[in-house]
Amino acid sequence: MLRVSVSLTFIFIVLLFVSVVSAEEGLKTIYVDTPNLCYKLDRVEDNKVYIVSTRDECTQIMGKIAVKISKDIKSVYIITNGVFWKEMKVEDDVTNKFQNLLPKKEDLEKASQYAKLKDKTDIHPIKEQEKQKEDKKQITIKKPEKEEYIFYLFSKSVPDITLESVFNQSKKLPNINFYGVLRGIDKTHSVFEKIKNIKGFEDITIKVNPLIFKAVGAQVVPAIVYAYCPPPDMFRSAECDYQYVVYGDISLAGALEVMGEHNIRLKELSEELHEL
Fold first, then answer.
1. Among 27, 216, 217, 245, which residue is least crowded by beta carbons within 10 Å?
2. How confident is the model at residue 28 (pLDDT cuts 50, 70, 90)?
3. pLDDT single digits (tens) 223-235
4. C-alpha separations of 188 from 184, 185, 193 in Å
5. Mean pLDDT (whole number) for 99-125
6. How far apart are CA 228 and CA 239, in angstroms?
7. Paired strand residues for 45
8. Whole-angstrom Cα distance, residue 101 to residue 135?
9. Per-residue DSSP letters for 184-218?
10. Are residues 249 and 221 in contact, defined by beta-carbon separation less than 8 angstroms?
11. pLDDT category of residue 10 using cuts at 50, 70 and 90
12. Does the structure show a pLDDT above 90 at 94?
């Protein structure tokens, strides 16, 4: 009797193992985008991936989460905190491609440094030291106040419809300096050939500035950056205070909405765009 019981238990375990293996064989692992690094997977329902934020304050660098989906699924809908965020195409060999895009340790360290720029206590001693030097020399150097900037980091690979959307939405924020930014000059001609017929492009300032890419640690495009910099006639990217960066094929309104979760001013800009 004992032998029969053990045999039945063994058969049950084998059947359970086979069932799990069969289920796993019908799945594939992909890496989906997250608005920042403070998101975790909640659940997966067919082609819907639900992720939730784990912190109210988080460094704004886009992250990735590994999820398992059916091999037949070609695109997924990413739901953040119960709200639809974006659709993401699922490529073949997607695991290897997305693994290469996962944030690197040095990028996270850079992002942490940029986040500290927002903390006034970090720059207070420097300002005090500068003030003491000015008092000692009995001179006053008045620097121009920095203005708001939005940089759109892009390349030839960005879809025309995305470029048109971002360019046209930027014109609805006349008090914000908006620059389209390319990494280098080697493919600049082909980029301009691509976008010269895009509606709204003629009024957009395009700059070739790899230093902005380096400053925010941007490894992929498109990316939308919010910063404070000197006025356009005195602009130097090295003097910018970079605040937030959002990666992905996302509209300007969508990017500002994500940033607005951590910044009242950006929330106001997001609402302004949605109202127009």
1. 27
2. confident
3. 999 999 999 999 9
4. 7, 5, 9
5. 46
6. 9
7. 48
8. 49
9. -STTHHHHHHHHTTSTTGGG-EEEE-HHHHHHHT-
10. no
11. very low
12. no
Residue owning tokens 């939730």 = 52
- Report the alpha-carbon distance of residue 184 to residue 207 in Å, rounded: 9
Give whole-number Cα distances, 170 to 42, 156, 203, 212, 249, in Å: 34, 19, 10, 19, 16
**How far is the C-alpha of 221 from the C-alpha of 210, rounded, in Å?**
13
Torsion of CA 185, 164, 257, 173, to 10 degrees: 90
In this predicted structure, what is the pLDDT of residue 222? Answer: 92
* CA–CA dist 161, 140 (Å, integer): 49
Write down the pLDDT at residue 199: 79
The answer to whether the CB of 242 falls within 8 A of the CB of 253 is no
The predicted model gives 245-267 an average pLDDT of: 91
Q: Partners of 225 in the beta sheet?
A: 151, 245
Give pLDDT, residue 245. 93
Strands 177-182 and 147-153: parallel
Q: Is the pLDDT of residue 152 over 90?
A: yes
The whole-model pTM stands at 0.50
Domains of the chain: 25-103 (no CATH), 143-275 (3.40.30.10)
User: Which token pair is 59?
Assistant: 């460094």
Q: Are strands 147-153 and 223-229 parallel, antiparallel or unpaired?
A: antiparallel
CA distances for 111 relative to 60, 78, 102, 238, angstroms: 8, 24, 14, 16
Cα–Cα distance, 261 to 254 (Å, whole number) = 11
- Give the Cα separation of 220 and 117 in Å (integer): 23
